[in-house]
Hints:
By secondary structure, the protein is of the alpha/beta class.
Amino acid sequence: MKKFWILFILFVLPLVFYIFLSEGIYKYSNLPILTEKVTNVNQLKTNKSTTFTNKFSIVCFPGKNVNNAKTGLLNLNEVIYKRYYQKPFFQVVALFPKETNEDYKKVIKQLGLYTNLKNWHFIFTSSDSIQKIYKSFKVPDSLNQDLYSSNAFIIDKKLRLRGRKDDEDATNGKLYGYNMNSVAVLKNKMKDDIDIIYYQYKKSEEKKRRNKNNY
């Protein structure tokens, strides 16, 4: 009996661990593309310096009602931005109606109390411009009358909306955006999916280096 357990520990457990690890890596290395070729934010007349190209962008639409958007913005800042803002290519882009510039000053100041806002981009622009960007995401829900969405969206370096096709809480399994008002969603879903983006990037860079060294 003792020999059996020794053999089990030496041979079977490593095999089980390898299978588990392989399955985990396969799942971890794939985050579905839900929309191709979203409109680049640098096409807006009111913005030329911020771009989605070659960036990992978290995009949100706070709308006209500051009180409605404040909690979500603070959650996004605490759970997501503070964790990733020093990562390469990471940025958060918030698109506000241009008439709300003064209204959001206090909220933006609060966001920056305990962190560096260098990779937050606050863009105040026209209603038509906000709708143009949002509609290019091709998500099933529309912005409300205040140009607000409770969701934040992941746009990769190639202007593609990324999300899930097998989410148990989403209609038809497709998760296009992540509810900023839910800390649990940001922690358990968005954080995991951003990690996948960086995992894919790391593997892609490693492959490029190997190919380069082979020449």
